[in-house]
Amino acid sequence: MTTTVKFGPFLAAEDVSVVAKAVVGPKGTVKLAELAQVAAAAPFSALDASVTEPLQLKENGASSVSVWHKTDAGLQQITFAEFDNSKSRNMAVLRTDTLRDTVASAVPAKGDAQLTLIVASAAEAYAAGLAAARNWPIFTKKTGTKAADRTVCVDFVVSNGEEVNYAELQAVAEAIRNTQRLVDSPCDVINTDTYIAEVHRVVAELKEHAEVTVEIIRGEELRDRGFGGLWGVGKAAEFPPALVILTRKAAAEDAKTVALVGKGIVYDCGGLSLKPTTGMSGMKSDMGGSAAVLGAFQAIVTTGAAKDTTVHALLCLAENAIDAKSYKNDDILHMYSGKTVEINNTDAEGRLVLADGVAYASRHLAPTVIADIATLTGAQLIATGKLHAGVMTNSDDVESRIITAGKATGDLVFPMLYAPEYLKKQFDSPVADMKNSVADRMNAQSSAAGHFIEAHLDAEYKGDYLHIDIAGPSEDAKTRGTGHGVALLYHFVKNF
Fold this sequence. Notes:
This protein has helices spanning about 35-40, 95-105, 120-135, 165-185, 190-205, 220-225, 230-235, 275-280, 290-305, 350-365, 380-385, 395-410, 420-425, 445-455, 485-495; strands at about 5, 20-25, 65-70, 75-85, 115-120, 150-160, 215-220, 240-250, 255-270, 310-320, 330-335, 340, 370-375, 390-395, 415, 435, 465-470.
């Protein structure tokens, strides 16, 4: 069963035929007597206003109430539910985490449904809609009896009267859900070859919105052109590594330029520094950074956002596999930046492919800012948690902007230490310019990993640098992809 999510003014529509309707809002807001728009719409108009009173009880109050309404087509489930919207300064414009969980419970798993979200503003509607849309991941290979495909129609009651930009919300949500599908797909579905085919599919759809160019550097061409990181990591796999560069140019010659660089390790067994079974399972998602970049690029082009900005999306694609050709600990890789790297951990491969990506971007694309995004370090979860990505940047302004983007979209972030003077020595090598893994794992290693990538920026590059580690928030508690990073990068570029 596939769930399609549609945003629009469905509450007042009379032609929406569904088996269930749900109204969800923050605690204290779901009161049918005070929601004129809801109370005036069918089938809510047939209900007594007291139906939502159990939600308002001070002691032992319900978090949801369901009733059944008889229609010509049969019984229709109607659910009213509230979520905890208490939040501190490091949270989003509203509690997207509790909203998502509440929506998952309030909307039945099968059958067409209509969801109405109670929000205070259009800004809240944006974050709330994106959170709700993540609830119904697309990828599945389950067999047996399948339920019919269904549609969930989402609308809003906005208390301050602001209008919701349904078109933008639809475009960004679809990009997020496509990213979730890619992250959930195992390597026998998404390898580097099929990933490139997916890129071509997305680009073909974008052609109606803007001119998009695609350049692909692949296989032995990477080796021949000096991409020692990408080639070294991916050369042992059945399907060759690749650097994919997507571009949407602004009209003005002197336009600002943003380069988004994503880690695309389609599977990470750890290489010869082999992961144990428990650590290896789930490594299909190690391409989540590249999927977020592709999704953000898709949303930017579809909506026409940031038309005065040239946007490049670089996907660093490889599988970290084991073969006679595998790169080894003690090998010295010659990177695209010109630097040499002594390998002391083949399972620290993501920074190697990203280093080549940012080196290419900084040397050839003249960006105003380079942002890389990756499921890079397990230490990120210790540093900033499972819901907040870790961000590190050389710019106070960029840090402020990316935090703002996180709060606006629900793709939360929190700043990590920026101290290259202190941390770069973690990579000292007696035989190369640097090693690829830290000497002291107890010394801000997530920040150190970002500094490793930063060290490969071209020496002439004078722009800003942003590193985003989404190792924690890229998956939810059910180990399904969340699409974290799509809306974050979209908002960052749109308002850059």
